[in-house]
Amino acid sequence: MNTQADTGLTIAGKTYQSRLLVGSGKYKDLEQTREATEASGADIITVAIRRVNIGQDPNAPSLLDVVPPSRYTILPNSAGCYNAKDAIYTLQLGRELLGGHKLCKLEVLGDEKTLFPNMPETLKAAEVLVKDGFDVMVYCSDDPIQARMLEDIGCVAVMPLASLIGSGMGILNPWNLSLIIEQSKVPVLVDAGVGTASDAAIAMELGCDGVLMNTAIAGAKDPVRMARAMKLAVESGREAFLAGRMPRKFAASPSSPMAGRVV
């Protein structure tokens, strides 16, 4: 029996019980954000500094009223940035708003149509941010070479896309993802493209350390129920990975033993 214990997700020296990270945008209101976040069981909540108020506007409702930093680790991200300079500035602003918070999610996009990562600008920004003392989790392409370069720079987690942001297409290239998982010494989290619970389970069965999602929950007909489904999917996928799946075979094998059968 495999009794390997799951010791939690450790990023930048801190351990989290949940391996599901969730976004905070696209919900119909802050109350739904709160309910879905609670249902997900997530410990880390991403916040798009350019789109969500966490103190930039003191006269408007703040996300932190329903997702308090006393309960959750807030992960400021540079969503909506298309070059290294803007991403660096945005994450520096996030650090200021959160009182010197070092953990961040770097995201530099290539264009508005695909939202695919701009890897040259991502690498440039990562190098500056790491030198500036940030603990950088980084959205990237599913290219093992680029992932290794980001790890070598000092990023604390690499986050390859499964498919395009918000597409819900699931994991389109499990082979590249497996190569990144095999080589990486830092956590690997699928970021972007998850559409439903089975996508999250597959990512975890492949050996990912976690999954980050927003649209798959917020865009569901019942976001709160989907958040619960994603929580269970990540947990079951992780258990399946630790258990070790049966080997694939090219022939049938009876479920019941043949020895000692009554003829």
From TrEMBL:
Quote the catalytic activity from the record.
Answer: [ThiS sulfur-carrier protein]-C-terminal-Gly-aminoethanethioate + 2-iminoacetate + 1-deoxy-D-xylulose 5-phosphate = [ThiS sulfur-carrier protein]-C-terminal Gly-Gly + 2-[(2R,5Z)-2-carboxy-4-methylthiazol-5(2H)-ylidene]ethyl phosphate + 2 H2O + H(+)
Q: Could you tell me the keywords of this UniProt record?
A: Cytoplasm, Schiff base, Thiamine biosynthesis, Transferase
Domain called Thiazole synthase ThiG: residue spans: 10-257
Q: What class of enzyme is it?
A: transferase
Keyword Transferase among UniProt keywords: yes
How does the record describe its quaternary structure? Answer: Homotetramer. Forms heterodimers with either ThiH or ThiS.
For this protein, the record's HAMAP family field holds:
ThiG
Entry EC number(s): 2.8.1.10
Instruction: Please give the chief subcellular localization of this protein.
Output: cytoplasm
Q: In which pathway does it act?
A: Cofactor biosynthesis; thiamine diphosphate biosynthesis
> According to the lineage, what is the superkingdom?
Bacteria
The record's InterPro entries line, in alphabetical order, gives: Aldolase_TIM, Thiazole_synthase_ThiG, ThiG
Record-annotated active site = 105
Q: What is this protein called?
A: Thiazole synthase
Q: Where does 1-deoxy-D-xylulose 5-phosphate bind?
A: 166, 192-193, 214-215
Subcellular location(s): the record lists: Cytoplasm
Give a single Pfam family match.
Answer: ThiG
In which family does this protein belong, per the annotation? Belongs to the ThiG family.
Q: Which CDD domains match?
A: ThiG
Chain's role: Catalyzes the rearrangement of 1-deoxy-D-xylulose 5-phosphate (DXP) to produce the thiazole phosphate moiety of thiamine. Sulfur is provided by the thiocarboxylate moiety of the carrier protein ThiS. In vitro, sulfur can be provided by H(2)S.
